[in-house]
Amino acid sequence: MDSVNPSQQQATPSFVELFTPKLVTVLREGYDRAKFRADLIAGLTVAIVALPLSMAIAIASGVTPDKGLFTAIIGGFIVSALGGSRFQIGGPAGAFIVLVASTVDRHGVDGLILATLMSGTFLIITGYLRLGTYIKFIPYPVTVGFTAGIAVIIFASQLKELFGLNLAGKEPGDLWPKLVALGEAAGTINLAAVAISLLTIGAIIALKLWRPSSPGMLIAVCLAALAAALFGLPVETLGTRFGGIPRTLPVPALPAFTPELALAVLPDAFSFALLGAIESLLSAVVADGMTGRRHRSNCELVAQGFANMGSALFGGICVTGTIARTATNVRAGAYSPISGMLHSAFLLVFMLVAAPLASFIPLAALAGVLAVVSWNMVEKEAFRALIRSSRGDAVVLLVTFALVVFRDLTEGIVVGFALGAILFIDRMAKSVALEAHEPFAVDDVADATNGDHTDYNNRTGTDPDTVVYRLTGAFFFGAASTVGTILDRIADQRRNFILDCSAVPLLDSTAANVIEASARKAERAGVRFLITGASPTVRRMLRAHGVRPPHVAYAATIEDAKALLRSPASGKSRLK
Question: Which residues of 401-542 form beta strands (DSSP E)?
Answer without folding.
Answer: 433-436, 466-472, 496-503, 528-532
